[in-house]
Amino acid sequence: MSINHFSSTPESFWWTQPHLTMEPTPKPPQQHLLSPPNTHHHPATSFSLNLNHHHDDVDGEERENPTSLEVNKEPMFEKPLTPSDVGKLNRLVIPKQHAEKYFPLGGGDRTDSAGLLLSFEDESGKFWRFRYSYWTSSQSYVLTKGWSRYVKEKRLDAGDVVLFERHRGEGGRLFIGWRRRSSASAVDGGAMAGTVGWVGPGVLFCACLSCA
Amino acid sequence: MSINHFSSTPESFWWTQPHLTMEPTPKPPQQHLLSPPNTHHHPATSFSLNLNHHHDDVDGEERENPTSLEVNKEPMFEKPLTPSDVGKLNRLVIPKQHAEKYFPLGGGDRTDSAGLLLSFEDESGKFWRFRYSYWTSSQSYVLTKGWSRYVKEKRLDAGDVVLFERHRGEGGRLFIGWRRRSSASAVDGGAMAGTVGWVGPGVLFCACLSCA
DNA sequence: CTCGTGACCTGCGCG
DNA sequence: CCGCGCAGGTCACGA
């Protein structure tokens, strides 16, 4: 495998790219995250993470134009995909540090693998709902159900990177994006190098991405 | 690896004695068999489950001296290890006849792979907890979790034999032991031939075990 | 039946 | 150098 030098080339840009208007989902209580420990499924109700509290005043202004919308996005983390993440295991391991920081499981004790459903918006505004849980056996946090469909639709391969963001305010909407492995040496042909799925479907950002 | 002529007839029916105790997996909900709810991490330390039930009457008497202790042990069966049993599959297949006789899975229906945890004491008094379950796919009973650690610690190799015993009374304590393959032709040097791990560290009991 | 996927488990590599 | 994180597996079950 030749992955592994994902660089670290920081992409300092993807979240700041212009454009975009995602439909503000009408429903206010955007619950993606999860239901409190006991409600299984359909998180529909509250939850309590801490990202959504205060409704940011500054919000309603002209800042609501695309640009500012981007500005309001806050990158959480990204992960270069391992072969297992895109293989038949149908799961994405979320590095513990990030999982515990951004997607804390209910009640502060993670013993419960009841699972939550997290909904993310992709670059086209499409929603992706993933089951999120903690596996005590392997002591790791994973996205399971729904993940393989995402991998398939986006044609993700090992070495590609997935990006996780959240919106400041607005109930903490969550976003997911991806980009092709940065280095050359594409395993399957490489034609796609530089493609990203972030600010809009099919948008190429080669220059920005490979240079920078 | 050239073993494989395990005489399939080592056991000449050991005593029949019903009874047996295995601890049913602690929680039905079945996730995490280890770690009781709150303790996360390090499963190894946390048991305390089964042996604490009732402290059985017979216990405190003179019967507790080594000799009578041995007398009260009842051999269940033994199995010459196959290459798979000691390989990376991390499981020990328990011959169906013995499994069903001594470790019947709950409720009489074995469809349920919920699994049990069986705790065995070894020759040094150390406890080994193995997950025991039925694999429908291979139609066999197996010890999985924990098994590979046992193989490693005891340095077991194909052809070596594992022994299973239980104590009469006392809630049916379970014991596990082993001995090196009896025939010569040791694969790795043979210096250990004849060694057993059974009644005490380093004690040899070859005569008793192989005859009888 | 197969496929998807939830639930297990463990070796190994890295910090 | 050792413990944890996680990559890479297996198996079972429901659709």
TrEMBL record, chains A, B:
> Where are the stretches annotated Disordered?
18-83
- Domain TF-B3 as annotated: residue spans: 77-182
Question: Where is the protein situated, by its record's location annotation?
Answer: Nucleus
Q: Could you state one GO cellular component term attached to this entry?
A: nucleus
What SUPFAM superfamilies does the annotation carry? DNA-binding pseudobarrel domain (SSF101936)
Name the Pfam families on file.
Answer: B3
The answer to keyword Chaperone applying to this record is no
Report the protein name in the record: B3 domain-containing protein
